From TrEMBL:
Annotated organism of origin: Candidatus Methylomirabilis limnetica
GO CC annotations, alphabetized: cytosol
InterPro entries, per database record: Carboh/pur_kinase_PfkB_CS, PfkB_dom, Ribokinase-like
GO molecular function, one term: kinase activity
SUPFAM superfamilies: Ribokinase-like (SSF53613)
Record-annotated Carbohydrate kinase PfkB domain positions: 21-272
Keyword annotations from UniProtKB, A to Z: Kinase, Transferase
Name of this chain's protein: Sugar kinase
Length: 302
């Protein structure tokens, strides 16, 4: 089943203790689409400027990503600059330039209106709602956001949350969004605003899913080669929603597997800057790492 995603398509400048990337391919919709494209068809709604390199579009097309909803307009592409210290779990935003996204009023292509799965990747919550409102009858709506929008557009974000089934955010964002330091209480508060499930991404500590029925925890794979965590959250979402779209089974047991698939995709992405690891990723590697996750978490009673 196809997934419709709206989110940023960006040029990122990133500094980590292990190196840097300048104006490299990035953006929440970009990372999400490429990760999800290993499991299903993806349709992108986004905007880029005249300066967006053709080779990046060619790469997305090479992953069979549908770019009919990705428009190019006069102006500059969205840019984000960030830096990480030795604690790679925390990104420090140095600069956000919305550029062509500031005035983006998307009209989604006709074929996209029947999409059954929608991912509202990290972007202006008004824009997330504007796109969702054009989809006839989505069966599953998942969303992401970040401190920039939690601080900058809190009311608009609360409106979006009313329409979302699964919210995926990191632990700091969970506390910030709820205005509550205790993660359990923060999660319960957010679940009272609309989403039926909350997936909290905790970087190298894995992910937690909270639903009315209970909690599920997945670890992150201990890796010896972490270079750039940028996009890990979006790749997690791409693996997670991509797997759900591929199986179209929204039962608890399958959602748990989807969380592990999200962790698998995030674990690959952090191994190189920008999307460089996903460019050379193969499906057999994904399967092998999924099995490694299974081994990591399996135990029996003594
Ligand atoms: P992640 O590391 O998964 O949280 O996402 C990183 C990506 O989000 C980068 O490639 C950025 O281009 C993009 N990004 C950063 N800030 C924003 C923002 N305010 N709105 C939309 N996308 C953003």
């Amino acid at each position: 089943m196809s997934i419709l995603v709206v989110g940023s398509v960006a040029l990122d400048s990133v500094q980590t203790p292990f190196g840097n990337a300048k104006e490299a391919l990035g953006g929440s919709a970009t990372y999400f689409s490429v990760a999800a494209s290993f499991f299903t068809d993806v349709r992108v709604v986004a905007v880029v400027g005249e300066d967006f390199p053709e080779e990046h579009l060619a790469f997305l097309k090479s992953r069979s990503i549908d770019l009919e909803g990705l428009v190019r307009v006069p102006g500059r592409t969205f840019r984000w600059a960030g830096e990480y210290g030795f604690d790679l779990n925390e990104a420090k935003t140095l600069e956000t330039q919305l550029n062509v996204f500031a005035a983006f009023q998307p009209e989604i292509p006709k074929a996209y209106k029947e999409s059954e799965l929608v991912f509202l990747a990290n972007i202006d919550p008004d824009l997330q709602r504007q796109v969702l409102g054009q989809v006839s009858l989505p069966r599953l709506v998942a969303a992401d956001t970040m401190n920039y929008w939690i601080n900058g557009k809190p009311e608009a974000l609360r409106e979006t949350l009313k329409l979302v089934d699964i919210l995926l955010i990191n632990d700091a964002e969970t506390r910030q969004l709820a205005g509550e330091p205790n993660l359990v209480l923060a999660a319960q508060k957010i679940l009272s605003w609309g989403p039926t499930s909350l997936v909290i991404k905790r970087g190298e500590y894995g992910a937690l899913m909270i639903r009315k029925g209970g909690w599920f925890a997945a670890p992150a794979l201990p890796l010896d080669s972490v270079f750039d965590p940028t996009g890990a959250g979006d790749c997690f979402a791409g693996g997670f929603i991509g797997y759900l779209a591929n199986t179209m089974n929204f039962e608890e047991q399958n959602i748990r597997k989807a969380i592990v698939m999200g962790s698998v995709m995030a674990s690959f992405n952090v191994e190189a800057f920008s999307l460089d690891r996903l460019r050379r990723l193969t499906y057999p590697e994904i399967e092998a790492r999924y099995k490694a996750f299974k081994r990591l978490t399996q135990f029996e009673d003594l």
